[in-house]
Amino acid sequence: MKFKLVERISEAEGIVNTFVWEPEEPVEWVAGQYIKYNLPHDNPDDRGTTRWFTIAAPPYEQKPRITTRFTLNDGSSFKAKLRTLGPGDTIEAGKPSGDFTFDVSRPAILIAGGIGITPYRAMLLQLDHDNADFKAHMLYANRNDQFVFRDQIDAVAKKQQNLTVDYFTDPRHIDIDDIKFAAEHFKDPLYYISGPEPMVNSFKDLLVASGVKEEDLKLDDFPNYDWPMK
To answer: Which contiguous run of DSSP H or E holds residue 17?
Structure first.
């Protein structure tokens, strides 16, 4: 299926960009899922012409979003091509999939590192839109104070008394004590971890070592991103 680019939004001083798409036919998804994209281009590098991106939009917006960080040299041939797209350009997209979705039956500890905030934007905006009864504590770490979607997340937190959000920037990092403090307010929480792959694996190991069962973890790792939040 083809998606047509209808809007491009500069986030975090232009380092992060959001691409808003109009599908050629209606697409249904659950907040937190992802889509596989194919973007043919000249001289692709060894990472090829396909990527998987979390849908940064809640379903009620009806238009899928890619939100991604660019480096000075664009990082890959795929990213370099993506960066050239403007309104009216198209990309090939598959069907939404993935199980990194919100379970309203249990309290949630939401751990986000950098661009790993994207599934949480979709989740929190959809939960707020649906007037859902949920409990969550988010720990959001970034290399600087340019937190993507902060205004939108804070707006939801202001309306939802059972949502707490803590922000972490260098030199302060999320540690196991921060997570335990957030969790002690909840009974039987689920732990969601989204961000660069090394971050996700590190927090998974920390939580399991602290006694959290693996079945109480939901993971969404972003390969080929570095992790400054040590």
So the answer is: strand 16-23
What residues pair up with 90 in beta bridges, in sequence order?
4
Query: Where would I find the H helices in 8-63?
Result: none
Predicted confidence (pLDDT) per residue in 150-178, tens digit = 999 999 999 999 999 999 998 899 999 99
Distances (CA, A) of 160 to 28, 130, 180, 183, 230: 26, 12, 22, 18, 30
**Region of residue 61 (left: phi > 0; alpha: psi -120 to 50; beta: else):** alpha
Q: How far apart are CA 183 and CA 207, in angstroms?
A: 11
Phi, psi angle pair for 152, to nearest 5°: -70, -40
CA distance 162 to 99: 23
Check whether 229 has a pLDDT greater than 70.
no
To the question of pTM greater than 0.90 for the whole model, the response is yes
- pLDDT on residue 224: 59
Q: List, in sequence order, the alpha helices (H) in the chain.
A: 77-84, 118-129, 150-159, 176-183, 197-209
Residue 97 to residue 218: CA distance in whole angstroms: 15
Within 8 A by CB and 6+ apart from 49, the residues are 38, 39, 40, 41, 78
